[in-house]
Design goal:
Blueprint lengths: L2 E5 L2 E5 L8 H8 L18 E4 L2 E4 L12 E3 L12 H8 L9 H14 L5 H7 L11 H15 L1
Parallel strand pairs: 1-5
Antiparallel strand pairs: 1-2, 3-4, 3-5
Helix pairs in contact: 2-5
The structure holds FE2/S2 (inorganic) cluster (2 copies).
One FE2/S2 (inorganic) cluster (FES) binds next to loops.
Length: 155
């Protein structure tokens, strides 16, 4: 099947997509966008988090055909004119990146959280990021990054 969709503001067409092919596979392997990570392929880790239209989804759980005619935004599409998005910058500034495998998904999930709840409580942060697993940081620096990003976006 052919899938035509908009990714990070650009129209894309993927041909010969098979029915079981995931949106994550198409993004990474056909469109050359490796930011969304493939860790579990079961919707358990959040490393593949992207926006589908304006809803946060695990790209590994979305069939590519479901994205036909729709809009996807990945971690590569969050920045502005070559500058990092404030959420991306906050993860660097807070030292919340170690191996980095979880980081793109956490950045997209944090971006979604802060656009829904600009000044989240710690409980709201933990709930929003509960689907994003990190094996390295112990999460405290990730919480710091979200607080830094919220403060920056409020300025
Ligand atoms: S790779 Fe999609 S949730 Fe883990
Ligand atoms: S920084 Fe390594 S899994 Fe999170």
């Amino acid at each position: 099947m052919r899938v035509e969709f908009t990714v990070n503001g650009e129209r894309h067409t993927a041909d010969d997509v098979w029915p079981g092919e995931s949106l994550l596979y198409v993004l990474r392997e056909r469109l050359g966008l490796p930011g969304s990570k493939n860790a579990c392929e079961q919707g358990e880790c959040g490393s593949c988090s992207v926006y589908l239209d304006d809803t946060l989804v695990c790209a590994c759980l979305v069939a590519a055909g479901q994205a036909n005619g729709r809009t996807v935004r990945t971690v590569e599409g969050l920045g502005h004119g070559g500058d990092l998005d404030p959420v991306q910058r906050a993860f660097l500034d807070a030292g919340a990146v170690q191996c980095g495998f979880c980081t793109p998904g956490l950045v997209v999930a944090t971006h979604d959280l802060l656009h829904r709840i600009p000044d989240p409580t710690d409980a709201e942060i933990r709930e929003a990021l509960a689907g994003n697993l990190c094996r390295c940081t112990g999460y405290e620096m990730i919480l710091d990054a979200v607080r830094v990003a919220a403060a920056e976006l409020a300025r």
